[in-house]
Amino acid sequence: MAVALSLSLIPGTSLLVVIGYLTYLILWRCFLSPLARIPGPKLAALTYWYECYFDIVQPAQYAFKIKALHQKYGRVVRIGPNDVSIADPDFFNTIYAPGPGHKRDKNPKHNRALGVNSSIGGSVSQELHRKRREALNPFFSPQRIHRLDSHLTSKAAQVENLFAEATESGEAVNLSDVYFAFCSDIVHEYCFGNDPNLLNDMHLASTRRNNVASVLGRVKIMFHFGWIRTLMGLLPPGTIARDMMMFRRRVRTAVDQVLAYEPSPEKMPSIFTHLRDDAELPAAEKSAQRLEDEAVLMTMAGTYSPMLSLVAAQYHLLARPEIMTKLRIELAAHGSATTAAQLERLPYLSAIVQEAHRLTFGLTGRNPRVCPDETIVYAHNKDPGQTYAFPPGTSLSVSTLVIHTDESLFPSPWHFDPDRWLTTTDDPNGLVPADPVTNEEQGEEQDATSSLVSRRRRSMLSFMRGPRICIGRHLANAEMAVLLAAMARWNLELFETDEEDVRFKHDYHVMCPRLGSQGVRVKVKGKWGE
Ligand code: HEM
Q1: 315-318: Cβ within 8 A, 24+ apart
Q2: Rounded CA gap, 403 and 333, in Å?
Q3: Of 11, 355, 413, 528, whose CB neighbour count within 10 A is largest?
C-alpha cells in the first residue's frame, strides 16, 4: 500500500522538479545572471533554440540576424544564454589578440560543427593550441611559402592549358571547380608530398568540391545536434552522410600512407612527414586519429576558403571590365614581376585580393573566445553608458559580417571596390609592404591620408587575428596573386553566372552564395590581346 502510494507520487514530484528547474533557468538566464543587463532579445538570452531557429529553419541566417540585432540594440548584444557579440573593431584585439599573460580559449561547443576536435583549430585551450601551432609554424612562414614559387607557377600554367583547350572546344569552364582543384593540388602536395593532379580531372574536381560543400552544409545541424555525429560513428560506414565519410576516408588513406613509411633523409619533408618525425611531439600527438583530424582541417581550409576568395575576385574582374583594365595596366608596367612574392607587392593586385577577402568574410559563423580566468570589460570610449563586464567563461565574439559591412569603414559595403585599399603613401615604385597589417602594428606607415586605409586594414577579420590567425594566409595570398595574374592573360566571359553566385547569402561556417549555385562559369574567348 505504502509502496503504491510512493509510486503514484513520482510523476507529480518529477513534474515539480522540472517546473522548478525551468523556473530557475528562466530567472537566472533572464534576470539574475551577470549577463542579464546586456541588451538583446530575451528569447536569445533564455535558450539556444533561438539561434537554432535562425541556423536551421531559416537556414544559416544567424550571422545576418546578429547584424540586425546590432542595428536594433547597439554595439553589445547578448546573442545566446552565455554568448555576447560585440560590433566594435577597436575591441577586437581584446577578445582575440590580448597579448601575453591573457588566456583566450575556444568555446568547445563550437568544435561540434566540423568534428575536427584534435586538430590545431579544434584545440580548446590556449596551451595545447600553442604546442600544435609551434609544430606547424615552420611550414607557413612567407619565406617557406615562397619556396613553392615554381610549383605555383607550373600549376597556374596547367590552368592556362585548360583555358587553351576550352578556347578550342567552346565549352563552358567552371572556375569554382578549376580553382578548387588548383588549391587542392597545392595543399595536398604540401601536406603529403604528392600531387593528386586534380586539375587533370575536372569531373572529379567537381565531385570533390561538392563533397566538401555538403560537409559544410551540415555544420549547423552538427553544431546544434552534436549527438548526430556520435550516432554516425556507431552506424556502419556510409549509412548516412556518405560524402562526409568518403571525404574523411580519403584523407585518412593519405595519413596512413605517410605513417606507413620510414623517414627518408633524401626526401623533402611534407607537413605530415614532419609531424610524424618530430621528436619533440609526444606519441599521442602523432596518432593516426589526431593526424586525420589535422589533415581534414588542413585540406578543407586550404582548398575551399582560397577558392571562395579566388572566384569572388575573378567574378568582379569579369563583371567590371574597368577593374580588369587597371589590373592589366599594372601587370604590364611590372612585367618582370612573376613570382608570388613580386606579384603580392603590386598595389592594385593586392587591393583586389584584399577586397575579395573582405567580401568572402573568412569564417562567417560565430568564432567565439572564452577567457577562463579574467573578467573582460567593454567600455565604449564615447558612451560611458555602454560599459559592460563579462565574467570569466563568457563566450565573446565579433562578427565578420558586421565589421566588413560597417558603412563607416566601408561605404557601399557590398560594392567590390579595390580602390578602398589604396593609400597615397604607397611606395613610389608602386609597391606595397609585404604584410601591411604587421607593419602598421609596428608603427610604420602612418599619416593622415592613409589613416582610413590603415583602420580598414586593422578591421579586416578574414584571417582572424592573434595567436590563432590563419596559418595558411601567406599561401592563400601567394596562390591568389599568381593565379589572378595568369587569368588576366585570358579573355573570359561570364556564362550563366551573376553576382548571387559569389555573394554571401548563407553562413555554413564559410560563406555560401545562393543555394543551388553551380559556381562561377565562363566561356574562354582566347588569349587576351591576340
Ligand atoms: C582565403 C583563404 C583563407 C581564409 C579566408 C582562411 C581563414 C581562416 C580563419 C579565419 C582562421 C581562424 C580560425 C579560428 O579562429 O579558429 C583560419 C585558421 C586556419 N587556417 Fe585558414 N584561411 C584561408 C586559407 C588557408 C590555407 C590555404 C590553409 C592551409 C594551407 C589554411 C589553414 C588553416 C589552419 C590549419 C587554421 C587553424 C589555425 C590555428 O588554429 O592556429 N587556411 N583560417
Answers
A1: 315/494, 315/497, 315/499, 315/501, 315/502, 315/520, 316/352, 316/355, 316/356, 316/416, 316/502, 317/352, 317/484, 317/487, 317/488, 318/492, 318/493, 318/494, 318/522
A2: 34
A3: 355
Q: How far apart are CA 205 and CA 495, in angstroms?
A: 19
Q: Amino acid letter at 423?
A: T
Beta-carbon count within 10 A of 31 CB: 11
Report yes or no: 105 and 372 within 8 Å, Cβ to Cβ. Answer: yes
How far is Cα 233 from Cα 151, in angstroms, rounded to an integer?
A: 38
Full DSSP string of 202-251:
HHHHHHHHHHHHHHHHTHHHHHH-THHHHHHHHSPTTSS-HHHHHHHHHH
Q: Which of 190, 470, 475 to mutate to test the pocket of ligand 1 (most atoms within 8 A of CB)?
A: 470
Is the confidence at residue 148, as pLDDT, over 60? yes
H or E stretch at 67: helix 62-73
Cα–ligand 1 centroid distance for 470 (angstroms): 4
**Cβ of residue 87 lying under 6 Å from some atom of ligand 1:** no
471 C-beta closer than 6 A to ligand 1: yes
**pLDDT tens digit string along 441-469?**
444 445 545 789 999 999 999 999 999 99
Look up the pTM and report it.
0.93
Q: What ipTM was predicted for this assembly? A: 0.99
Ligand 1 pocket member 368 (CB < 6 A) = no
185 and 217 Cβ atoms separated by less than 8 Å: no
Hey, is 387 helix, strand or coil?
strand
What secondary structure letter does DSSP report for 261?
S
3-state secondary structure of 80: strand
Give 353-395 pLDDT, tens digit per residue: 999 999 999 999 999 999 999 999 999 877 777 899 999 999 9
Question: Do the Cβ atoms of 391 and 427 come closer than 8 Å?
Answer: no
Closest CA to 357 of 322, 311, 325, 318: 311
What are the φ/ψ torsions at residue 417 (nearest 5 degrees)? -135, 90
Pairing between β-strand 76-80 and β-strand 83-86 as defined by DSSP bridges:
antiparallel
C-alpha 308 to ligand 1 mean position (Å): 13
Greater pLDDT, 429 or 371: 371
What's the residue count for the chain? 530
Ligand 1 atom nearest residue 468's Cα: 41
CA angle 481, 482, 483 (to 5 degrees): 95
